[in-house]
Specification:
Structural class: mainly beta
Number of helices: 3
Number of strands: 18
Strand order of the largest sheet: 2-3-4-11-6-9-13
Helix content: under 10%
Length: 261
Amino acid sequence: MIEHLKPRLLDKPWGRRGLNPRFGADPARQVGEIWFERPTGAPLDVLAKYLFTTERLSIQVHPDEATANARGLPHGKDECWIVLDAEPGAVLGIGTREPVSPDTLLEAARDGSIEALIDWRPARRGQFLYNPAGTVHALGAGLTILEVQQPFDVTYRLFDYGRHRDLHLAESRNVVDPVPHRHSADHDIDQHQSRLLCDGPWFGAAWCFGQAPQLPANAREIQLLPIDAPVGDVHTGQCALIDDPAVLRSTGAFVLAWATS
């Protein structure tokens, strides 16, 4: 059984015009994100979305589940990134170069020196990074990212390069953990090998080539996102809920994302 999800296109000041036609976007729109939702509007327990950048995104942080709940929000936000494309010279920022205190980071956000504290890394196709709540991060320009995250988009902006959008320094004070980023799930994806990318605590993801790897027994609400070839009647640029990943076959790569909690 397959349930096709509905794309939701979001225009962003850092987004991209002239997207690949497979995404169905008006070439004149400056699309930054494409989310996938049930046509009925019923909530999903994991959110998969594409991001397209032509400028650096804000330096930001997300609260964890407990902090979000204490603030009256339904979820915190862990997320992970799959870099599908990176232009020459593209970078992404994740964690700080050295451990600093939250107060030092917030003062640097106020005077603009926070850019020098971030660990800016060369971006390359096939990178996988798990970004837990509390991690300071920012995507650079020239990236196409597939992001899997908890299903609530709560973001605290620390610095926004003079774009004059609201910042959330006070809200970030007890959220941010400004230390170098190291996570056991981070690795470079072998484009022609199926494997689990992460599993838990809130969601899981797998890179698949030809067919899916064995998924955990607790995987539910499994979403299918073809990358470079159709999977059955689900085409590249689309997303669908599926029942049985074991029957999937493709001549190319696809991503599976699922809820674990």
